[in-house]
Amino acid sequence: MDFDLVIRNGTVATASDMFKADVGVKDGTVAALGTGLAAGREEIDAGGLLVLPGGVDGHVHFDQPTGDESVMADDFLSGTRSAAFGGTTTVLPFACQQKGQSLRAAVEDYHRRAAGKPVIDYAFHLIVTDPTEQVLGQELPALIRDGYTSFKIYMTYDALKLNDRQILEVLDIARSEGAMVMMHAENADCIAWLTEKLERAGQTAPFFHGVSRPRVAEREATHRAISLAELVDVPILIVHVSGADAVEQIRWAQGRGLRIYAETCPQYLFLTADDLGGEGFEGAKCICSPPPRDAANQQVIWDGLTGGTFQVFSSDHAPFRFDGPGGKKVNGEKAPFRCVPNGIPGVETRLPLLFSEGVMAGRMDLTKFVELTSTNPARMYGLHPRKGTIAVGSDADIAIWDPARKVTITNGILHHAVDYTPYEGIEVTGWPVVTLSRGEVVCRDGALLASPGRGAFLPCGLPAPARPKGAPAPALPF
Ligand code: DUC
Ligand code: ZN
Ligand code: ZN
């Protein structure tokens, strides 16, 4: 037998092309693309189906300690299981440094949390919260060289945020080492000031979470992040962009030739501020930061996805139960919004939502869908071409989609450990029916076939998009 597996008769799509081909898999990688391939030990008939690179979700939170009584619902098993059922084959969760903790110790802690659990492959982004001399001078450069080549920094949240001087120091290391910096851009003082004003007025229901984090606070921080990155001459990626004003800043920077990249997420296409205002405490289910905006801003986000402002579409899966200990009600059902854990689940629904409302609704081509959800995140984080495409030599990470399948999203069909989905009741067209990781069937028709721990840790290369403008061109590989 030439192949361990042949996926026959499907339509393959990559970030650039769509073509009818069989995919031959050997030793976990794509060995051949062609028509009439020789028999495989195993065969999958993909007639009438789409054969896409598995999704790469470049922004998820699994088993991340929160610093208070709240607890993330998903660990590395339930989180990766949910990802796989949604057609995703690689995830990038965070290893978050606690203030006072060594960055290396944080990484070791998250490796322990992951051990024996993932069903698909994973890499870590770092979160740098305490850029001491030791961290900047030794730990961060060493970790980047060990394959942790991207990290997030925060401009808000007291336990996480850096001041402008610290941001400059960290950006400088990213520049000299070639790492990708992800920026959470919201102005902390604006949010704190508004929150206190709202609390004094007794406006503490979940709805006011959105009011406390207006678009201008995102715009100001986005502009400042861009300016600091320009000063240092280093590319950055602004994550979870929610509003038209931030999009305007990003377009302005891109128009000036700066290497400013951007990510957005399903919550900014499918939810609005009204969803924070449900009956009683229901709105807490949609509390995330930045918050969802309105229909006009959703349209700007769609335009940014189709028009090239955004390079990546991630879930920002940050899973808290609604009921039960450690969840959204950790401080009671009447807790002020400030005391409600931030984050919503979405690792499993990310791809079906964008496929349905993007591709099937005619807003974007299938190639654009693959680019935003798989190829570009792999490129941005140094995993391409091993991940993010279907090409000879790439890992056989593949999602086979039935583009005609109609599914009504309800929490009961999902595989995370959260007790709700913000997308309850939305009907989508198109669903991943088989997910393969390195040639192994992980899920098929609703059944999990992989054992916990089979997912491999991926050290990441230096991402080409993180190269500063002023850097010399790299040597060609031939
Ligand atoms: N916002 C974040 O920045 N991270 C996780 C969840 C959230 O809402
Ligand atoms: Zn964030
Ligand atoms: Zn996040």
Folded structure, characterized:
This is D-hydantoinase (Dihydropyrimidinase). Belongs to the metallo-dependent hydrolases superfamily. Hydantoinase/dihydropyrimidinase family. It comes from Azospirillum lipoferum (strain 4B). Its cofactor is Zn(2+). The protein is of the alpha/beta class and 478 residues long. Helix content is 29%, strand content 22%. The chain has a domain at 55-371: Metal-dependent hydrolases (TIM Barrel), CATH 3.20.20.140. It is built from twelve helices and 18 strands. Strands 1, 2, 3, 4, 5, 15, 16, 17 and 18 form a nine-stranded mixed β-sheet that branches. Strands 6, 7, 8, 9, 10, 11, 12, 13 and 14 form a nine-stranded parallel β-sheet that branches. The mean pLDDT is 97. The site of one zinc ion (ZN) has 4 residues, from loops.
Quick structural summary:
Keywords: Hydrolase, Metal-binding, Plasmid. Helices cover 29% and strands 22% of the residues.
Largest sheet: 9 strands, mixed
Helical percent range?
A: 25-40%
Q: Specify the structural class.
A: alpha/beta
The backbone outline, from C-alpha atoms, is: globular
CATH superfamily of the domain at 55-371: Metal-dependent hydrolases
In the predicted model, the low-confidence regions spanning at least 5 consecutive residues are none
CATH architectural category of the domain at 55-371? Alpha-Beta Barrel
Q: What's the average pLDDT?
A: 97
Keywords: Hydrolase, Metal-binding, Plasmid
Protein name: D-hydantoinase (Dihydropyrimidinase)
Pfam family, one: Amidohydro_1
Domain Amidohydrolase-related: 50-442
